[in-house]
Specification:
There is one protein chain. By secondary structure, this protein is an alpha/beta fold. Helices cover 51% and strands 14% of the residues. It folds into three domains: 48 residues, no CATH class; 104 residues, 3-Layer(aba) Sandwich (Rossmann fold); 68 residues. Strands 1-2-3 form a three-stranded antiparallel beta sheet. A three-stranded parallel beta sheet has the order 6-7-8. It has a two-stranded parallel sheet with strand order 4-5. Strand 7, helix 7 and strand 8 form a beta-alpha-beta unit. The model has no long low-confidence stretch (mean pLDDT 88).
Length: 240
């Protein structure tokens, strides 16, 4: 209340739910602002809208490039936002996102993540606000931006210190290379032990009379560890 008068401040949905009339002139301005990727906030008394302001988050310079890199990696990109459809569509077009959901509540974001998971998808969620926390907790991989809210960073399994969105595709590329190296190391360690342990135990002795010298066995074991470490160190020079 201001000077005894009740004012309502919020989105067009709130105005409609409150039975507030929005004049056509405001509707025309709303469309123009939303098509310019702005979010409209209405100010109304108990009868009609009296004023409106348009605000916008500046799109990060790295957003378009990061999304293009994710697509090149075969990642399907979805955007979820509480903004109006025209605003969401304008932002999505600017950064190259085909799939977007607008006017969603925090709970809706988590439900959508669960829906993708039920379809057999592995879902990574990127967010920075308290409204993203439920979806971050639900996702298979949760990524919080370093300058986001504390609750988002607490829930997320990964926090990006930089605000550069290109760190997201780089993190995914690094993760994939790491998993690939782990599988390689496990494979070669398995093959090495399948061959080495029986020979060290005397498998060849009944046929050739040969027993593996303990010094050679020790050197072979050390070489196995060195090869695993050397293979893992290749990550230092990975192209991200």
């Amino acid at each position: 209340k201001v000077n005894g008068s009740t004012w309502i401040v919020g989105s067009p949905r709130l105005m409609e739910e409150s039975g507030i009339r929005i004049d056509r002139s405001f509707r025309d301005k709303e469309r123009a602002w939303q098509e310019a990727a702005h979010t409209v906030i209405w100010f109304a008394d108990q009868e009609r809208v009296r004023a409106a302001i348009a605000i916008a988050d500046r799109i990060k310079p790295s957003a378009k490039e990061a999304i293009a890199r994710l697509k090149d990696e075969g990642v399907a990109v979805y955007m979820q936002t509480g903004d109006a459809r025209r605003t969401a569509q304008a932002v999505a077009q600017q950064v190259g996102i085909e799939h977007f959901r607008s006017e969603v509540l925090p709970r809706d974001k988590a439900v959508f993540v669960a829906t993708l998971q039920e379809q057999g998808q592995v879902v990574a969620m990127v967010g920075d606000g308290i409204n993203d926390s439920e979806a971050l907790a639900k996702a298979d991989v949760s990524i919080a931006m370093g300058k986001g809210s504390d609750i988002a960073m607490d829930v997320a399994r990964m926090t990006l210190i930089s605000t550069d969105l290109n760190t997201i595709p780089r993190a995914i590329t690094l993760s994939r290379k790491t998993v690939r190296l782990i599988r390689q190391n496990l494979f070669w360690a398995f093959i090495y032990n399948i061959i080495g342990i029986p020979i060290a135990a005397g498998l060849l002795y009944p046929f050739t009379g040969y027993l593996l010298n303990p010094m050679i066995a020790g050197a072979a074991m050390a070489f196995s560890s060195v090869s695993v470490v050397s293979n893992s160190l290749r990550l230092k020079w990975a192209q991200l």
